[in-house]
Design a protein that fits this description.
Blueprint (H helix, E strand, L loop, with lengths): L7 H28 L5 H14 L6 H21 L2 H13 L8 H19 L4
Length: 127
């Protein structure tokens, strides 16, 4: 099977989606560890809309909710495997890594997991 090169728009959209999953997961972990509460899918979608608006980008409400759900899945997976102290550190590293000048191996690992979740979700047939 011959695979065509992705257009710049497709790559940008994919990158935006993966970055949103990462940023939302970082926010979810921060709120969880600071307030012992999880953001709802709707709250995550609204937060994503605010971030997208600032960068003059848009995604449909359904797409934002889907990405919010994926970020929730990742954040709960991280929280379920790390101690509170390690989770706080991971959330901090993820938040710091939102700055492109900040390098963090742990954040890169979580970014790869965001990419895997996004690709896995995109490969699944719609329900």
């Amino acid at each position: 099977m011959i695979r065509e090169k992705a257009t710049q728009s497709e790559v940008g959209d994919r990158g935006t989606c993966i970055a949103l999953i990462f940023a939302l997961a970082a926010e979810r972990l921060t709120i969880y560890y600071e307030h012992s509460q999880w953001l709802t899918e709707a709250q995550g979608a609204t937060l994503a809309a605010d971030w997208l608006w600032r960068s003059k980008r848009q995604l449909s409400h359904a797409e934002r909710r889907k990405l919010s759900g994926l970020s929730d899945q990742l954040a709960r997976q991280i929280a379920g495997t790390l101690s509170r102290e390690a989770g706080l550190y991971a959330a901090h590293e993820m938040t710091e890594a939102l700055d492109p000048n900040y390098h963090s191996e742990i954040a890169e690992t979580f970014m790869q997991e965001c990419e895997r979740l996004f690709d896995q979700d995109a490969a699944e047939p719609p329900a």
